[in-house]
Task: inverse folding
C-alpha cells in the first residue's frame, strides 16, 4: 500500500531546536521547541538512521532501563529538519539534524494520539480513528 504524504507546510517548525523533553515518570512524552510544543500519547520510536534507539514499548515495559530521559539525551538542542504527515492514518515523522527521526504512530479508534502546536496559531492533532485536524494561523 502506498502512503501519501500530506501537503501541509511545516515551514514554521523547520530549524527550531528542542529546548525541553518531559521526563516526568508515568506522563506522556512531550517536548518543547523554541516556539512550539508537542504532546505524544501514542506509540512512538526514536531512531538514528535505521537503528531504533528507544521506543514507547521500551519505556512502558522496561522502565528500569529506558525512559524519556533517553529521548532527552538524544534530542535536546537538536534542530528540526523536516516534518512528514501521512494522510491516511495520521502518522507523523519529525526529522532532526544528525539523521534522527521521531516517529509517531496513531493507533486508537477512541483517543487522540498526538499534537503539534506552534505559538503562531498552528495546531495539528490526530483524531480517534486515524484522521487529523489542522487549525492554521489567520
Result:
Amino acid at each position: 500500500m502506498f502512503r501519501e504524504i500530506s501537503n501541509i507546510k511545516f515551514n514554521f517548525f523547520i530549524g527550531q531546536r528542542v529546548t525541553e523533553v518531559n521526563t516526568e515518570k508515568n506522563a506522556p512524552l512531550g517536548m518543547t521547541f523554541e516556539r512550539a510544543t508537542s504532546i505524544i500519547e501514542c506509540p512512538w520510536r526514536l531512531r538514528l538512521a535505521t537503528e531504533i534507539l528507544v521506543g514507547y514499548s521500551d519505556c512502558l515495559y522496561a522502565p528500569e532501563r529506558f525512559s524519556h530521559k533517553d529521548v532527552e539525551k538524544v534530542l535536546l538542542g537538536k534542530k528540526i529538519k523536516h516534518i512528514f504527515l501521512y494522510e491516511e492514518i495520521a502518522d507523523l515523522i519529525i526529522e532532526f539534524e544528525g539523521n534522527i527521526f521521531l516517529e509517531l504512530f496513531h493507533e486508537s479508534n477512541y483517543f487522540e494520539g498526538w499534537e503539534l502546536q506552534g505559538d503562531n496559531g498552528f495546531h495539528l492533532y490526530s483524531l480517534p480513528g486515524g484522521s487529523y485536524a489542522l487549525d492554521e494561523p489567520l
